Amino acid sequence: MIDSRLHVSILDRSRTRAGEPEPAALRGTVARATHAERLGYDRFWVAEHHGVPGVAGSAPAVLLAAVAGATRTIRIGSAGVMLPHHQPLVVAEQFATLSAFAAGRVDLGLGRSPGFTAPVRRALRQTERDFAADLAELRAFLTGTAEIGLHPQPQGTVPLYVLATGTGLHIAAQLGLPVIVGGPLLGVGGDPAPGLAALAAYRRAFRPSPAQPEPWVAISLDVLVADTAAEAADLMLPEAWAMAQSRTTGVFPPLEPVDVVRSAGRTQRQQQYVEQTAAAAITGTPAQVEQRLAELLDRTGAAELVAAGSTFDRSALAASDAALAALFGATAPR
């Protein structure tokens, strides 16, 4: 059983869908956030991607303003803003402004992934940046400890989170910040030992900060729930196929219907990527997902699950969100 004290949240990347105009993806994100609030989710995250045909979420601060206006109680945040693409002062101002409209509900997750392609990286004026220094500067702006005469307007305190890999975990530990980890570090469908060692190192090296006295970990991965294991596996197919195409053609496309994905011709390499993506997710019936999540949460000592699943069928995705919320006892606003 999953400990009901653990938190559960949704990460929505504003995935576009074949046959839909791109603005529908953004409206779908806002609708999913209001549904998540009704289901009792603790938090709703959005992300930042640039120049990706399959993702409409390129401006998290702007999208979160729409989410804030449509919700009342659920926490909202970025998972995350890619800090090397921005000046720390501008990010501080954006999220302090958001916090002014949704006081006590805004969180700021920060990562350092480069742009998806070389043209995107050039358009973003990508340069070598000191991620740790930028994080420290951003925190100083938000906590009012920056140099005299330089404070973001409006002023406001927003909790910070680090989207962490191995190096990111070390930086977060040194700065006393909570982390959100995913991908290979979780060892889902593979060897969990390296990830567990990295998390243990983060906890050992953690330096308490005023806002975060103890190490804190959330885990993020695709989670999809359906009435049968086969139905849940089908829900994962559109995302797995898009990932396979991105890795073999360089284009991350919109989600396609399951029957289209099934009939699509694919190379052996693409099939391998489809299988790898599916293996890194947790899908199944409520009982199957509950067992696997309970084991993963216990193994990692995580305090929150950030469910990042997506699929073409919006109604099936809404049903999956409801089933997952129920596993955490989040059947009413907390």
A few lines on this structure:
The chain has a single domain, classed as Luciferase-like domain (TIM Barrel). It is 46% helix and 14% strand.
- Please report the distance between the alpha carbons of the first and last residues: 19 Å
Query: How do the SSEs run, as a string of H and E?
Result: EHEHEHEHHEHEHEEHHHEHEH
Main sheet strand line-up: 1-2-3-4-5-6-7-10
CATH superfamily: Luciferase-like domain
- Total DSSP helices: 12
Strand composition percent: 5-15%
The radius of gyration over CA amounts to 19 Å
Q: Which architecture per CATH?
A: Alpha-Beta Barrel
Summarize the amount of helix as a percent range: 40-55%
Number of strands: 10
Mean pLDDT: 93
Main sheet properties:
8 strands, parallel, barrel
Give the count of structural domains.
Answer: 1
Regarding CATH, which class?
Answer: Alpha Beta
CATH topology: TIM Barrel
- Determine the structural class based on helices, strands and strand pairing: alpha/beta
- Low-pLDDT runs of 5+ residues are none
Global morphology: globular
Describe the overall structure:
The chain is α/β, with parallel strands linked by helices and 334 residues long. It has a single domain (7-224, 286-327), classed as Alpha-Beta Barrel (TIM Barrel). The protein contains twelve helices and ten strands. The protein has helices spanning 23-39, 60-70, 88-101, 118-123, 131-143, 166-175, 193-205, 229-249, 258-263, 268-279, 286-300, 314-327; strands at residues 7-12, 43-46, 75-82, 106-111, 160-163, 179-182, 217-221, 223-225, 282-284, 304-307. α1 runs parallel beside α12 and α8 (229-249) crosses α10. The protein is globular. The two termini are 19 Å apart.
